[in-house]
Amino acid sequence: xxxxxxxxxxxxxxxxxxxxxxxxxxxxxxxxxxxxxxxxxxxxxxxxxxxxxxxxxxxxxxxxxxxxxxxxxxxxxxxxxxxxxxxxxxxxxxxxxxxxxxxxxxxxxxxxxxxxxxxxxxxxxxxxxxxxxxxxxxxxxxxxxxxxxxxxxxxxxxxxxxxxxxxxxxxxxxxxxxxxxxxxxxxxxxxxxxxxxxxxxxxxxxxxxxxxxxxxxxxxxxxxxxxxxxxxxxxxxxxxxxxxxxxxxxxxxxxxxxxxxxxxxxxxxxxxxxxxxxxxxxxxxxxxxxxxxxxxxxxxxxxxxxxxxxxxxxxxxxxxxxxxxxxxxxxxxxxxxxxxxxxxxxxxxxxxxxxxxxxxxxxxxxxxxxxxxxxxxxxxxxxxxxxxxxxxxxxxxxxxxxxxxxxxxxxxxxxxxxxxxxxxxxxxxxxxxxxxxxxxxxxxxxxxxxxxxxxxxxxxxxxxxxxxxxxxxxxxxxxxxxxxxxxxxxxxxxxxxxxx
Length: 500
Fold this sequence. Notes:
By secondary structure, this protein is mainly alpha-helical. It has 26 helices and 4 strands.
């Protein structure tokens, strides 16, 4: 027992000696460290707080370690390459918490390295908004020669495309020709448009005459005018040609990236209108990638808005809300002047409609009020007509009609409609939307005659829109099977290609 006790005493004394030795070693090591460093709990040298690198230097080190260029980091954070460089060099101080959190998230830098507390999920109207990052890039789009597939010869394919172009061109001039045959063409405009966009996006149909590079900006302007005036026959020819020509030139500079991105945004809006969601996803994704490559803040935000619309149509309301609100809160939009403010309003307006689709009437009205306040701050002028269809107090009110309809309150929708003078809306397309939304409210209330009159008014303003849009065709079909069919309704159904 004595030996055991002696051994125990020795062990205790040894451990005490070891601790003393470690303490002495730590003191000696500490005394030999350069000024401005400290020791951590296990004896590793750590910089003193005052020696920690500046935030910009930490960003630069993390970016270089991950082999990212300034442009790539800019795409992840929403800033230009030049602004990222200014942050790294300390020319622009990184003192804003939002900016620090943005770079910490993009580069996976621990928040404590910037002296920040761990981030808490941001909630807006009960929904966590998660900043979106760039989507995985699709394979490079190539326009090349069409290969023979499934026994389909090149000549037959060229003939089909030519016939399609002739049909679209004939529809484009239909207002001058008149007659029943032309009206039947208008009922097919949706299918013609989708077919043309699909082939252009897949790199097919390159044998058709495309506009020369110098004419592309003017062609884009004409395509936007076609959309706003609901001349879809003309758009069915012009927009696919723009996309093909834009891809051919997209490697020659960011100017063509921007033009192609705007063409894809327009294509997305048209595909959403025609309920072609699969092609819509592809078009919106390409629009976003091209806009980011061209450092085009407004088009990037508009592409995000279209993605939120597509997510909502797919029934992913939470994701749609998050995409729209995160894009609205992006710092780059806040530094884009009045146009950036208007785009923020459009995104919040979209979130309001999503809240309505999710049954959150209170959230819908709060978000609508937020969008209306932004429109009021802008002075009531309609902005972004060629980007998001227009943003002003009257367009916010127009969206409220759709939102109230979607929330299941058609009486509130009609009340919202009475606050709008249709002639104050910024385009034929928006006026058509106004009358079809009124028709939808009347249909929910069972007021069939009023519904038909509203649809006929929409047709008067925008016949090609009324005849081609699936949502209108569905409304007409419902009227045909739910009661008596007056001659006006039967005529509208025939002109829209809806079978009685």
